Amino acid sequence: MYHLGIDIGGTFIKYALIEGETTIVKKWKKETRLCETPEQFYDYVCADIDHLDEIDLIGVSAPGVIRSDSQVLSKAARTVRIMLGTNVNQEVMKRLNKPTYTMNDAKAAGYCEMRIGNGQHSQSSVYFVIGTGIGGCVCDKNGVIQGVDGIAGEFSSLPAGFDENGKVIGLASLASMDALIHIYNAKVPCERQLKYGTEISQLYLENDPEAVEAMNEWCRNIAMGLHAIVIFYNPEIICLGGGISEEDWFIEKIRATYKEAKFSFPDLVTTKIDRCLFSNDANLLGAVLYAQSQQA
């Protein structure tokens, strides 16, 4: 028998057939479709599942704040906003008739890393996933720390200042991949503006002056966020996730930027900064590991 992992994202919905705890037998994905009703959306999520008769458990990774009973409490990307107010477990079980358990996508990735990745065996760990926003997960030796309202680890909203109207600026505005793009585009003429962080990263590696300046500023912002995490939680390890975390130069640059910044307790802090071991598969594996733990 297999376990099924489903990772619902704003761009793609990813699937994996998993044997045992972590052996991925097959993976596939499809574009996330904009639907008019929750019923249409969940019909689409649950359509065309391979080997359904051989699946005995489903773990779902989903965006937004997810209550322990899988009720979706906050909005996410436009294509998945229709999930707000729905109960993911109930909707999937109604269609696939399999035991289903759901957790927030970044928390699923963090749970995977805590159990079998670079956070394994630590007494305290944090997962900082850099994408369009910033996903996050905080763990202790017992597992994921959800918080009383399920928002622990929502690092995109970690306060980082105020705008001119007195509204709190979240860390995502300074340290997400979208923030890097904004920082770079503010430094160059319109005809040189770019759409993707990968383009800016390549220019940085080619020593383009504006890209170097933008990357330095962006990495300082990330280091500021990491320092805030160290001060309020002081974990053994912080693992960075997202596509850019697979680059060795980026991990080394963040470590160096953090060390060079004049933060508090420079001779005392021992928190290690590393990458997530399971990159694109962390959400799927974490969701299934979580489902397995709920059935144990």
Name the features.
alpha/beta, Nucleotidyltransferase, domain 5, 5-stranded mixed beta sheet, globular, 12 strands
Strand content: 15-25%
How would the global form be characterised? globular
Helical content band: 25-40%
Taking the sheet with the most strands, its summary is: 5 strands, mixed
Tell me, what is the CATH class of the largest domain? Answer: Alpha Beta
Mean pLDDT equals: 94
Structure, explained:
- With 296 residues, this protein is α/β, with parallel strands linked by helices.
- It folds into 2 domains: 2-108 and 280-295, ATPase, nucleotide binding domain (Nucleotidyltransferase, domain 5, 2-Layer Sandwich), CATH 3.30.420; 119-275, Nucleotidyltransferase, domain 5 (2-Layer Sandwich).
- It is 35% helix and 23% strand.
- The protein has helices at 38-45, 88-96, 105-116, 172-175, 177-185, 197-205, 209-233, 248-260, 282-295, and strands at 2-8, 12-19, 23-31, 55-62, 100-104, 124-130, 134-140, 143-144, 159-162, 168-170, 237-241, 272-275.
- Strand 7 and strand 8 (143-144) form a beta hairpin.
